[in-house]
Write a structure and sequence with these properties.
Elements: H1 2-32, H2 36-48, H3 51-59, H4 64-75, H5 84-91, H6 97-113, H7 115-127, H8 129-135, H9 141-154, H10 169-176, H11 180-194, H12 220-224, H13 235-246, E1 255-258, E2 265-273, E3 279-286, E4 288-289, E5 305-308, E6 318-324, H14 329-333, H15 353-357, E7 364-368, E8 371-373, E9 376-378, E10 381-385
Length: 414
């Protein structure tokens, strides 16, 4: 009888331990729940503390976009890099909330990464009408932020600036980590203060502002040690172009990219609504160009690199393309389970699934009809790509290529 009581007591203790563990787990899970109302309140307060942030906030349409902006300001407080946590928070918002949120995150991380320089530059512009006039040649907030950062580097040292008299790897590394508009503003400030045109905007192939984890710092010293290759020739690439031109073939307009664990930077440049009411994101993809052609089986690409299908890439570091903000919105509205698998982009390519897909080095993406415009390529279409010998998986019947003009099947390699 005592043995039975002992066993029952032991079972009861085990049951209590299980209940306690479950309670602890539930409590921890609750702590992870994001309070978007608190983030929105904090974000609005942060925006009111910064004139540029407040101006950008007021540019967001009232309603979900502006609330999304406030949430983005709150979730990115103190952060200096984008990351999947902030991406998930923005993507979870309704209506136009994701776009406003992304605008706030992009502004916040660029400003926070260069907070001291930006503050100094803004103060100099406030005190000097000539600087202010040059700064305000564009109304784009990101342009002004870039201008302020450069002023903090090249402005009058008597007013707190560093007073640098030449551009170099360090300052250009800072510039290349900014948004496209921020890069333009930085260059305009250099032109104003130094009277010289800096090299065209081209992101550094060094450390990327986007990481697979929720990192919040960037090694600017590593960026500063990057070699400046502007204006230099590469004889190996020149010969490859020459050999290709002699062959009399028509150059490919297809760029192929290989995934690489957070090596790519996806920056939202703008958005629009198409005729069906679907929100389309205009994205800029920053990549490292490969020194050789991608090739029919992708052998010319290391993880995180892109190149022309048939020749080396010795030009730009950005691809501009359009993709749905949420390719599974109809499925969600009809209660269909959302595809969250690592290969979801093969069936539902959008602003969330493509970056996730390209985290895997065994995955490839093809941008077709790529044409050089300004300092980037503009892609006419895009979709996942499989090396020769592998079969392209069929497009999901619920979303065919005909339904989605932003997914084009690449031409088969010869």
């Amino acid at each position: 009888m005592k043995r039975i009581q002992s066993k029952l007591t032991g079972a009861f203790v085990v049951l209590l331990l299980c209940v306690a563990a479950a309670t602890t787990a539930n409590s921890q899970e609750e702590q992870k729940t994001i309070d978007v109302n608190a983030l929105a309140a904090r974000g609005e307060a942060l925006a009111n503390e910064d004139p540029l942030a407040l101006e950008l906030r007021n540019q967001q349409p009232e309603g979900s976009a502006r609330r999304g902006f406030d949430i983005g300001m709150g979730v990115a407080e103190g952060h200096t890099l984008p990351g999947p946590g902030k991406d998930r928070t923005c993507a979870s918002l309704p209506a136009r909330g994701p776009q406003g949120c992304r605008n706030a995150v992009l502004f916040s991380v660029d400003r926070n990464r260069n907070a001291k320089l930006a503050k100094t530059g803004a103060e100099i512009a406030q005190a000097d009408e000539r600087v202010a006039a040059a700064r305000n040649t564009e109304t784009d907030v990101f342009f002004r932020l870039g201008f302020d950062i450069a002023t903090g580097i090249f402005g009058d040292p008597a007013r707190g600036a560093q007073g640098n008299t030449l551009t170099g790897p360090g300052s250009l590394g800072i510039r290349n980590s900014l948004s496209p508009a921020g890069c333009r503003g930085f260059n305009a400030s250099v032109k104003f203060h130094l009277g010289q045109d800096p090299p065209p905007c081209a992101p550094s192939p060094g450390p990327r502002p986007r990481t697979p984890g929720e990192e919040t710092t960037i090694d600017q010293s590593a960026v500063a040690t990057q070699a400046d290759n502007f204006g230099k020739r590469n004889t190996a690439r020149d010969k490859a172009y020459e050999d290709f031109s002699k062959a009399g073939a028509e150059p490919s307009n297809e760029i192929r990219c290989r995934g690489g664990g957070g090596a790519f930077i996806f920056t939202t440049e703008n958005s629009k609504v198409n005729s069906t009411g679907e929100t389309i994101i205009i994205d800029l993809l920053t990549f490292e160009p490969a020194p050789q052609a991608a090739g029919p089986n992708g052998a010319g690409l290391k993880p995180g690199q892109c190149s022309w299908a048939d020749r080396p890439m010795n030009e730009r570091f950005l691809i501009r393309f359009e993709t749905p903000a949420n390719a599974q919105l109809k499925q969600q509205l009809h209660g269909t389970p959302v595809d969250t698998s690592p290969t979801a982009a093969e069936r539902f390519p959008d602003a969330q699934t493509i970056p996730a897909y390209l985290n895997d080095p065994s995955h490839y993406w093809s941008f077709s009809g790529a044409k050089p415009v300004n300092n980037f390529f503009v892609a006419a279409g895009h979709r996942y790509w499989k090396p020769v010998g592998e079969t392209l998986r069929p497009t999901d019947s619920k979303r065919t290529n005909r339904d989605n003009p932003y997914v084009l099947t690449p031409k088969k390699p010869e």
